[in-house]
Amino acid sequence: MNNHPSRHKRMACEERQGESRVGEKLTHGLGDEARKSCNSLRRNGFTLIELLLVIAIIAILSAMLLPALQSAKTLANSTLCKSNLKQCGLQLFIYADDFNGYLPSNESANPKRYWSRELKSVYGDAINSKTCICPSQPSTDNISQSYGFIRTDGTAKLYGCPPILLADSTYATNPPFQNYYFLWTSNATLNSGCIYPRHLRKANCLIPDGSAVDLDRNQVLKSPYTYDSKVGANVYKMSAQFFY
């Protein structure tokens, strides 16, 4: 009768040993499977063709995205340009209010009296020179203003002035370099200061109510952006020159 407890102990011990051996086999089995998986991954790495395919896909996606990014940058520059024009327009309105409705001079006779310099000479550091330059204007041009103004010797008044006061401008013979003025004329072949389309084939323009608008060639050459100008006994339908 005393042998029964020892027999039970041996059986329990053998069961635990069996379980331990099963656990060891299971552990070794998992380790072997993991090693086999790692070895498989090493053997099945990227081939040269797969690598070239990935590079080609990245290049195609970049080519698709770059025009969109460039367009977004152009639109952002156009928005900033309009903001600059509004700031310049506010400065012109303040000048006109201080000088009985007259606009600043804008002519090339010596001494040169460009509109931005006239404002600077009157208001000094209150005029931010950066607002006179379009963000799309090439930085290498070394200019003092990007926006052309109506040509005047200081006798033009704000009220009754042409329907476009300031605009992106250029020399017709040297685009896209800036010109300080643009002409209103009935002669469409005149080769001088012109409105210039810097922003997606449109030019940003300031109109006398203080708004900044983007106009294409057809819009500039038609009403309401044209006006009648009387010279002697003749009345001419005047349009701003537009370089396309």
Strands, helices and their partners?
Elements lengths: L2 H41 L4 H51 L16 H9 L23 E4 L15 E6 L9 E2 L1 E2 L7 E3 L7 E4 L5 E4 L1 H5 L4 E6 L2 E7 L4
Parallel strand pairs: 1-3
Antiparallel strand pairs: 1-2, 2-5, 2-6, 4-9, 6-7, 8-9
Number of domains: 2
> Based on DSSP secondary structure assignment, what is the total number of beta strands?
9
CA-atom Rg in angstroms: 38 Å
Distance N to C terminus:
117 Å
Order of helices and strands: HHHEEEEEEEHEE
Total helices: the number is 4
Helix content: 40-55%
Average per-residue pLDDT, rounded, comes to 77
Shape: elongated
Strand proportion, as a percent range, falls in 15-25%
List segments where confidence is low: pLDDT < 50 over at least 5 consecutive residues: none
Backbone structural class: alpha+beta
Question: How is the biggest beta sheet arranged?
Answer: 6 strands, mixed
